[in-house]
């Protein structure tokens, strides 16, 4: 995420965006009332995605996205304490395991698209890489592959994970949200201080183009305040829920202008490919839990082929270690970013294509 100069919004833009966020909030509230795991975010995602089907959703602007990321990063940082880094000794080995998991997840998904759905090899591989969607879509366009299908697969993976993964986590490890709710809450002055520090450091990280800079910087600032005892409790539930509702509306608004007919045509392949990726991530999560002593829920969310922001929010709301998850998704981003140029060069050589 990078900071960009935004255009001036008209009153109509503002009204449409406010309506979109309101619908997302209503969807999130409905899911919470239905006791759906991670309901504030997933309900907002689903509500706005449905709104986009009817052409009524509006894109969520950069200021609201930064607001959501800053709030969520601050809330995640507030759970930091002396025991937060209990599993940090396992990070190097776990990140190495995660890198292997990423490779095998990509190959498993690629196999589904090639052998079961009949896609060309390069298109199947680009659709299967779990991350760096903008770069992948631009590469697919330069290589003459079907960029629209690749974008649909990449975007669909996020919405499926945001809505379905919480159910699996709760089924496997239970839902310790009652423990989170029982934790003491920061006084208003400390909440304001944590938010101010979070937005300041998050804005700095985003300015320097750090991956997930706003949420990561806010986590670092808030985490430092809580680790050293400056802030004694945790962010209030209403603040965390507000950030989730905004994030969900943003994720859902990415489906504005989405080709839903194309989505329907490739739904089977998308589900099968995601199932193959999740099977690999579950296998590696069990290895991490058995060999490295990492909690299974944290490993599964950390190894999941989803976006960094969505996964760390799921970690927080489901009561697993969000710092572990954030570290692993940041490592996944760097690993994919380093490997993609070599992968693209190999695909160009194998297909006899020149650089575009």
Count of extended strands: 0
What is the percent of helical residues?
Answer: over 70%
CATH first level: which class?
A: Mainly Alpha
Q: Average pLDDT, to the nearest integer?
A: 85
Structure in words:
- The chain has helices at residues 11-33, 39-53, 62-77, 91-116, 121-128, 133-142, 147-173, 177-182, 188-207, 213-227, 237-253, 260-265, 267-292, 296-303, 308-317, 322-350.
- It is mainly α and 356 residues long.
- It has a single domain, classed as Up-down Bundle (Na+/H+ antiporter like fold).
- The longest helix has 29 residues, at 322-350.
- The protein is globular, with a radius of gyration of 20 Å.
List the helices and strands and how they pair.
Blueprint: H1 11-33, H2 39-53, H3 62-77, H4 91-116, H5 121-128, H6 133-142, H7 147-173, H8 177-182, H9 188-207, H10 213-227, H11 237-253, H12 260-265, H13 267-292, H14 296-303, H15 308-317, H16 322-350
Summary of the model, kept short:
With 356 residues, the chain is mainly alpha-helical. It has 16 helices and no strands. It is globular and about 60 Å long.
Primary descriptors:
mainly alpha; 356 residues; disordered N terminus; Na+/H+ antiporter like fold
